[in-house]
């Protein structure tokens, strides 16, 4: 499995240094980008596609959008991404806050090459299904730890998640809240949903939102584009326009105009 890595730090020498360090490890790693702040990184995350193992290394203190805010955003939009928090700030409160927001690993500056390599290998093995690389065995072990739900409940849980997502598409996606509603571990729920539907929860929600946006444009010919975006959970007009065009093949306004052609 290919690892795709995004490095986020406001210091160019650190970004370049980390990239060189990672490439020298001989792992199956493709560096997707080097970003100087959280806003750039979030844009890159929104363009990320495919089923590869995705990892983000991010600093805490950055301009425009810091690491803490970036972590919160990524957890909302792409919870499948593994995150490594990198910082010169060794105070416990930073680490504790990061862990609460879903960071799986924490490394301090200056980065130790062996520690970073061990972290990347550990994440890759986790994605592959444990140290043996046997996904089936890993799933069974995880189920034993987490308490895998009976088959009937698994099906009901996925159906309930779909109902909750579609009940209000403009609401932010919260994996933890969804998992609590169906009494399943967040990680297990993500894997279960993908297994049952063939899609990640994030991808399913995105498709549902775009589908609703198309229906709104078809039914209300004089609606404003920013209004459509807000109704389906994308209040940022530029991002909504970009996402709609990526999935439909044309911008929302172009799609609306084509309906009267």
TrEMBL record:
Residues 159-258 form the HTH araC/xylS-type domain. This is Helix-turn-helix protein. Residues 4-124 form the Response regulatory domain. It comes from the Bacteria. The modification 4-aspartylphosphate is found at residue 59. The keyword DNA-binding applies. Keywords: Cytoplasm, DNA-binding, Phosphoprotein, Transcription, Transcription regulation, Two-component regulatory system. Pfam families: HTH_18 (PF12833), Response_reg (PF00072). One of its GO terms (biological process) is phosphorelay signal transduction system. It is found in: Cytoplasm. One of its GO terms (cellular component) is cytoplasm. One of its GO terms (molecular function) is sequence-specific DNA binding. SUPFAM superfamilies: CheY-like (SSF52172), Homeodomain-like (SSF46689). It comes from Cohnella lupini. InterPro entries: CheY-like_superfamily, Homeodomain-like_sf, HptR, HTH_AraC, HTH_AraC-typ_CS, Sig_transdc_resp-reg_receiver.
